Amino acid sequence: MTKAKAGVALLNMGSPASPGDVRRFMRELFLDIEMFEFPGERFVRPLFAALISTLRTGRVRQRYRVLGGTSPLLQLTRKQATGLEAALLERGYDVPVEVCMRYSRPFSSEAVERLRARGVGEIIGLPLYPQFSHSTSGSSLLALTKAIQDHCPGLPHTEVTHWCDHPDYHSALARRILARRGAMTGEEVVGLLLVAHSVPERFVLRGDPYVEQVERTVTGVLEVLNGESREPIPWMLAYQSQVGPIKWVGPTVLQALDAMLADGVRSVIVAPVSFVSDHLETLYDIDLQYRRQALELGFERFERIESLNAGDDFLSVLADLVINEVA
Asked: Which domains, from first to last, does the chain contain?
């Protein structure tokens, strides 16, 4: 029997299309049961989503305005999709790739329809999250599954749940860290701050593998660095974007920066390990907010590595993942 032609739904979170779209985007986010849980689900959630999105819209909208009105996430994800298709074709695999966002267009239903229009008989869900969490990859994969069931019931589909251990992913991050370190000439002690988006502690307690997979990624990156660098780099792992009164996984970025200062580090390289594309939380939170706070604390330099975005080395990692599923 001839194997059905496979296509890839490249999954990501999405972003507001404009400052005016922020409230709708946030409402979609807070309506997601995989992202936020609380009692009285059926009746309380719509009220909760409406209230929180209203309260936070102004602050979030201003952050997007600082970046020029919107995030480059969709544009970058489209470049990744186009680049992945080309990388696969170079290796002899004709596999269509379509962008599939969770909280903004193109939604899962649109991606499924486009893949079917391109003659696909099987869909591979590929999240752009290296580590699995039910609130990110899990939510996106569930939305994709529902779209497939609604629009083409019975269509075969598979999932790539995580790729935190891919050695070439570790190497791609390490290569950028070493490049940034090499550009910081004249610095005696340069620390490395590896950062990931935080999750509520209750997620970990109920078995979410995200934190353990983040730590596996960090271990892999450090192994590459130790093999390439002439001298060890002092490092810490921190988690960003904790909000609200609940307990989040830590330490926070500011707690880690305080600890590094106490150890005599005055220059730091920041390397996100759970984000692969530039968006609000790299361009604003890290580049602007955390950088300002670090300099106020007493750091002399605060540098972030270049994001993977649509780099050839990263597209090669994605191609490996797809070929593994197709084969």
From this structure: 19-66 (no CATH), 167-304 (3.40.50.1400)
